[in-house]
Structure formats: C-alpha cells, structure tokens
Amino acid sequence: MNHFFSMVTGTGARRTLTGRLGMVVHGCAALVALAVIYTTTIVYVDLYAMMVVFLSAMLALLFLNVTAGPKGRQDRPSVFDWCLVVASLVVGLYFFAESHRITQRITLLFPLETVDLLAASVLLALTIEATRRTVGFGLTSVVLVFVVYNLWGHGLPGALGFREVSYNHFLDIMMFTSDGLFGVPLRVAATYAFLFVMFGTFLSKAGGAEFFYNLASAVAGRRTGGPAKIAVISSALYGTMSGSPTSDVVTTGSVTIPIMQRLGYSKPLSGSVEVAASTGGSLLPPVMGSAAFIMAEYTGIEYRDIAVAGIIPAMLYFMCVYAQVHLRSQKLGLRGLSKEETPPLKGTLKNGGLFILPLVALSAALLMGYSPTFVAALATAVVLIVSAVRSSTRMGPKAIWDALAVTTLRMVSVVAACAAAGLVIGGISMTGLGGKFADLVYLLAGDVAFLALIISAILAIILGMGMPTPSAFILAAVLVGPTLLGLDFSVLQTNMFILYFAVLSAMTPPVAVAAFAASAIADAKPLEIATGAVRLAITAFIVPFAFMYGDGLLMVGGWAEIASTCVTAVIGVLLLSIAVEGYWRGRLLKCPRFGFGLAGLLFIAPSWWAVALAVLLVSMAVIATPHLRLHRYKVMI
C-alpha cells in the first residue's frame, strides 16, 4: 500500500538507458531536436500539426526515460511504460493525420466522432500521467481539480457555478483548439524555449560553463567571501541560460557548495547562497528562462522589451545577494581562495574569452528586433563557430549529436508542465473562473492597490510552490493578472510583477524546490536553506512593488527619470543589505540597524519625499553608531 501511494504521489526517477535501446532513444531525441530546428527556422508548417507531433514524440521519450515512481526500474522501461509509449505515438499519428480536418472544422458546431473522443481521452490521460511523473503531485492535483471543476462545477452554488459543460464540449475545447492543451505554453515549449535551451546546452558542452565559472573565480575568488561570490556570479551567468533554478543549483552548486564548506561556510549558508543566486538567474536578461518567453507570447509584448525591462531589477537582485555575501563573510571572518586556487584573469580570457561572443550576439540580435526563434538559432550558431576556433573546444559531429539529444531530454519535463498548464488555462477560460477570481481579490482588497498587490504576490508564490516556473507564471497570470490590470497597472508592470513572484516561489518556504535540490549537495535541511536564501534575496520581494508604482525601474520613461530611480534604488538595496546582516565595518546596534533598513525601503520607493526622509534616517543611524563616526568611509566592495 505504501509503495502504491509513493508511486502515485511521487515523481519518477530518471532512467539511464544503455545498450541498443539507449542508443536508439538517444538518436530519436537528437532527431526531435533537428525536427524542431527545421520546423521553426527553415520551413513553415501548420502549427497545430507541428505541436501534435512534437507532444507525441516528447511524451514517448518521457515514458522511456522517466520511471513511474521513485522506486521504479531505472535500467529499462516496464511493460506499462511501453504501452504508454505506443499509445503516445498512435494518438499523435491520429491527430497528425486528421490535423487538416481538425483545423478546418468549426468548434462545437461540428460534432466530434467517436474515434476523436477516444483519441482525445487517451491524450488527456497521457498528459496527466506525464505531469505526475516529471513534476509531481502538486501540479497534477491542480490539473485534476480543474478537470473535475470543469465537468461538475456547474452544480456549485453562487458565483462559483457556471453553465454545464459536457464531456464532449470539454474535450472539444481542450484537444481540438489552441485554447487548451495546444495553447500558448506548449507552443512556446515547442519553439523558441526549446531553441534557447539548446543554446545553453551547446554553450555548456563547448566549454562555456567552465569558462564562466573560471571567470567568476578569477574576478572574485580571492576577495573576502570569494567562494560565495563565485557562486553568485557563476550561477547568475549559467542561470540566465538554463532558465531553471533547480537545474542551476544542481549544475553549479555541485562545485561551489563543497568549496564554500571547505573554507568555513556552514552547510545551510552554502546552500542558501547557491539557491539565491540560481533563482535569480531566471530573472537575468538576456534569456530569463522559458517563463519570459511565455510572457511574451501571452501578452504580445516584444521579448526584447521584456529583456530590457528586466535589466535593472535583476541587477538590484544580484547586488543585494553579493553585498550580503560580502558583509556576512566579513562578519564571520571567512577568507577567499588562495592565489594557487584561482585561475589568472588574463589566462582565463585568453583561453575562453570568445565564449562571451554568443551572449553579445544574442543581446544584439534581441535589441535589433529579431524574433526570439532567430535569436536563439543565431546564438547557437555563434557557439559552434567559437568552439571551432580552438581544437580543445571544437565540437565534432558526435558532440553536436549528443548536445541535440541532451536538449530534447532536458525539455521533456518542461513540455509536460507546459501541457498541463494549457489544460488549466483552458479550464479557466471555459468556466470564466479568471473573472470570478478577480472579483474575489477585489472583494478582499477593495480599491487599495497595495493590498491587492500583496494578495497577488502571495497567490503567485502559493500557485508556484512545487511547480516549474513556466507553469507558475501562466497560472498566476491568468488568475491574478486581470485584477492588477483592472487597477490601472500596465501590462508590462503586471506581468513582470507576476513573473518575479512565480520565479521566487522556487526558493520560498515551505515548498522550495531549489532548496530541496541544494539540500542533497549541502547536506542541510531544505527549510534552513530556503529561509537563508529568502534573506539573501530580500530585495527581490520588494523591488516588484517599487516598479509597480514607478516604472522607471523597468526602463520606461525619460533617461533622467530612469537614472535617478536607478541611483536611489541602488542606495536602498545596499542599505537594506546592511540592515539585514546587521553589519557595516562592525556590528550594528538594533536602532541603527532598523534605521538603515527603513531608509533602504524609502530609497527604493519612487518618491522624493521618501528619499529626503531616508537621508535623515541614515544620518541619524550613522550618528548613533560610534565605529562609523570614528572611521572614514570606504567603498564596501
């Protein structure tokens, strides 16, 4: 019984397929990647047909590579897995063969045939099982709740009730239109999100990840708190390519966490630094992860504009983490790496400096207005060109083939989550729950915008607990977005606010998936790691409120306004970091510490009267702190 419960509620484990089967699966994964490249950059194909084939292939690969439960067989698929693989391929083939008829029919007017209903039912079940295996019971339960609500929620009293939706109606919208399973999330996963993951994979395989780690070591390794600063810089650089806080923790944390612990960092602190830095990587332009791509597709805002808007908030995020790491290291007397342990900057740039070019090409193409699909393809091509310059980094046919396969296998869990999110979005649209949810927030917050923002932030974090960032964002955007738009916030402000808190859910207790990933490496309790990470990244929970009331932080408005907002925000972040750590050239007493913290909040607030009051508070805090009066000020970092 316990085994059955564990299999039903737990996520599956990744299989390591070997022998002929491993070679075949690896080759099929690479072929899927080539097909995505071909259909997104070379030839135009029907979007519905493309997504049907893509989902079918990814589901088949998923059931081959992920066990049914945490204790499933990891050497080869079971008979049940093979049945699911065959079902995925057969259903995909049917939908592809009927794609022309499906796209030409009028929804709900032309009745579905019996075989249509059977194929759609099987695809629905396959999607739910794939979600359970890869994401776990959290998102799966949300999908199931919405399916039940769609089919039987009409019997509920009051505002939660709606017009009855038959099973045929439900499947028609969910499976035969672009409003359900094949909606925005899956469309993004099948196009430029896939290509950006490919870019990150190729850059890592070519040696780019190692270069960025060495660059971080050369720049910050010998400074106070050097290992932690390496984690901040390298995780930021890697995270903007991977777009997944959890995978970033596993990739860079396996190196940085042991180094931090070897030099005196406690187990929880080493994990907290890595989690805070890795989570911020998903907010760092130019890539920002797949959630930002979904935001672009969902809102119609150019991805370029989203990336530009994310620059200042992301810089403030990492400034906060970096400053706190510096202050904490000073307070604890933690040293940096020795000269022998850090690579020379000149040698690092000489050996791998060309890996900066793909990021430059990516950023330039975005700013020039090219589509995200073209940008990702261009950046990947630049990686291949750069890698070919030196024999030590050159990617041959086998390395390229492997990178294609790895990209596809990395995307299987993202595809499952995006497909599940599409089911939830379709259910919300079908029942009008989004508008009802907005009415509920209005009822709780009234006309008080700040209270509505707090409620929206909490809901975005709760919706994102245990879920991948893309799913968390799209759920929050559909449910919370209309409320904030109704309060006269812009589309960009609203969705950036939701994006931030959807990303932060990865490290927010009690369900902090990134912290759970770090706990295995750091050998510390996940809750301690998550709490420490939230403390290090405290600015990230404040800045979104600031840009909702003054969009200069999103690079909107005149340059004078943007510059002044940026300067005051930087000062505010540094003061907040000092207050949180309770240290600046020495330990601070409670009253000055409170003064620095309040002043930091006022500096971030977009108001000149708040800045004037903040200056007064800082002056009082300095006067009340003897060791600050007696020493000349030095640059903190």
TrEMBL record:
InterPro entries: DctM, TRAP_DctM-Dct_fused. It is a multi-pass membrane protein. Keywords: Cell inner membrane, Cell membrane, Membrane, Transmembrane, Transmembrane helix, Transport. The keyword RNA-binding does not apply. The keyword DNA repair does not apply. The chain crosses the membrane at residues 21-41, 47-67, 79-97, 109-128, 135-152, 184-203, 306-327, 374-391, 403-428, 440-465, 472-492, 498-521, 533-550, 562-584, 596-624. GO terms for molecular function: transmembrane transporter activity. Residues 124-548 form the TRAP C4-dicarboxylate transport system permease DctM subunit domain. It is found in: Cell inner membrane. GO terms for cellular component: plasma membrane. It comes from the Bacteria. Its main location: membrane. Part of the tripartite ATP-independent periplasmic (TRAP) transport system. This is Sialic acid TRAP transporter permease protein SiaT. It comes from Vreelandella titanicae.
